[in-house]
């Protein structure tokens, strides 16, 4: 079935890579350390396990060429599959040939590639909206063995983590969803579990004044005559409509754009074989990756039930911390003419903080940039909105050029990108980024 969905050249190149994998007894996997990357890793490791191929997983934290090369060379002899990263890092491993890259990010092609680089953008597919890392991992696993279709939940968790579900799936993601989804669907609010906790711990959407404030949530629900302890899936149509309208009005108090409003509702799938909803699965994978426990969901979904409790507890730990950071960053944010920026206390939190502010707490007229001061460098995360993208914003270009001018490196998507610069170079970066954004954005 997957052969009928994919472009012939794409299918043939993936099949060639799969043949390379089938001939191995041991494969190393390098996956980006976010929700999309973890979802991708779960797919690939389960596919390798089914073929009795031994494996070792490492997560990619540093995307600069030198850091990536160091990670690659920790175990440079076996065949390595690099997923949700790799194309932009080829210059760092240009003299190696024993790798397969499955990527979807913007990159600048280079000559002399000796390994296999499969980037979905090279096949006319939009890697920001139509395919992500888990898309690449899933189609690879299906070409490897069509019976890997049961890994569909992790394809969708990666798509959702990468925000490619906003406004509905499109392109290759939609084609795969239509062909391989066998689960029941319910259109619900983008919340999970009992309403009281669901709204209190909701970070995406983020409800200013309600998120992180259970007393306010209780009063809010009482005003709507909806039970605080009711499960989101048990709401009747009238309750669902009433709550959706009230939450939309709550978001509109912050003058946010249509992107944020649109994310109030979505399709929820129940994965009977996993005993989680699609929303819960995303929270598990994303939450654990944000607190540095990327391996726990991988272990669990490879069959290690002993980590279940710790894995689930990490979700509330992550959300409690993130909620505090979002409120703090929002109150301390610096307004520039063409962008907003803040400092985050942890590098893993800068992206989610920037995303929450851009989508749910500010007018959608400027991108939001988060800095984090590490021991050796400054890590940067940037987030925009689809409205800004429609006006010309390309954060991948902004991060690539501005980070380079500040002595670092960067890249990513048009709507979300990251980078690294030396300490004390933030002003240079801000000035460069502002000029680029000014040149990109078309007036309304």
TrEMBL record:
Keywords, in A-Z order: Exonuclease, Hydrolase, Nuclease
Pfam families: DHH, DHHA1
Record-annotated DDH domain positions: 27-140
Stored Gene3D superfamilies: 3.10.310.30, 3.90.1640.30
GO molecular function: exonuclease activity; nucleic acid binding
Matching InterPro entries: DDH_dom, DHH_sf, DHHA1_dom, SSDNA_exonuclease_RecJ
Domain DHHA1: 351-438
Claim: Isomerase is one of the keywords in the record: no
PANTHER family with a match to the protein in the record: SINGLE-STRANDED-DNA-SPECIFIC EXONUCLEASE RECJ
The protein, known as: Single-stranded DNA exonuclease RecJ
